[in-house]
Design goal:
alpha+beta; 245 residues; 9-stranded mixed sheet; Maf protein; 11 strands
Length: 245
């Protein structure tokens, strides 16, 4: 006969609340954090894949979608929101624009945090050579979805990593092709009321119920559609010694 003892286990909360502070900073070259910008220190109490002896990490983005992806592999990092002009330059191609904006965001933050590894990112949705912005409201989202019905939408997700150790820059652009099934206004309206993806270029959330609109998704990295190509990024962080092998 085997006796089993039951012990009372105290479960501690796995996450601490974000500690927020603010600082005064000024930047040049058209890419800056503004006169007062907030920094969020993200700390998770969980088994870590992060190398504790590596330099600190900053995510140069205000996106909670990107933060959610980075939370999967990092237990401690800062989040800084750069103030960057995201307008297209001349006849710049969408892929070049996405790469430039990711680089510009990373450089804006790295200029005042030279001892941190900085991750910058940007994503563009392209429909028939036309870049789609975030809809912002329900009516614009309906128009974006109806324009995409039965067509293919390309998502270009760029990431730039600035490493303070080797003073090197690493860049990558992921291309994901989303083919939409043919649908009418009724489905578009029903979906939008469900997910409310008004802060998402393309007017859908793949991590939500956006798949009801899809015919297929072609990608090398499914996380790229959410906002960061994590397969490439995790490999680069491991290569540079920021993740434990």
């Amino acid at each position: 006969m085997i006796r089993t003892s039951i012990a009372t286990v105290k479960v501690r909360r796995r996450f601490r609340a974000l500690r927020r502070t603010s600082f005064d900073a000024g930047y040049t070259a058209g890419a800056n954090l503004g006169p007062r910008s907030s920094i969020a220190l993200i700390v998770h109490k969980k088994p870590s894949m992060q190398n504790p002896s590596a330099p600190p990490i900053i995510l140069a983005s205000s996106s909670h979608y990107r933060r959610g992806l980075l939370d999967r592999i990092l237990t401690e990092y800062q989040k800084v929101s750069p103030d960057v002009d995201e307008a297209r330059e001349g006849d710049e191609a969408p892929r070049a624009q996405a790469a430039r904006l990711a680089r510009k965001k990373a450089e804006a933050v790295a200029s005042s945090h030279p001892k941190h590894l900085v991750i910058g990112a940007d994503q563009l949705a392209v429909l028939e050579e036309r870049v789609l912005g975030k809809p912002g409201d329900h009516q614009n989202a309906v128009e974006q979805l109806l324009a995409s019905s039965g067509k293919a939408l390309q998502f270009l997700t760029a990431v730039c990593v600035l490493d303070p150790v080797g003073r090197r820059r690493y860049e990558h652009v992921d291309g994901t092709l989303v083919r939409f099934r043919r649908f009418d206004r009724r489905l578009a309206e029903n979906y939008l009321r469900h997910d409310k993806p008004y802060d998402c270029a393309g007017s859908f959330r793949v991590e939500g119920a956006g798949f009801v609109l899809f015919e297929s998704v072609t990608t090398d990295d499914p996380t790229a559609l959410i906002g960061l190509p994590m397969i490439w990024l995790a490999g680069k962080l491991q290569e540079l010694g920021y993740l434990l092998k």
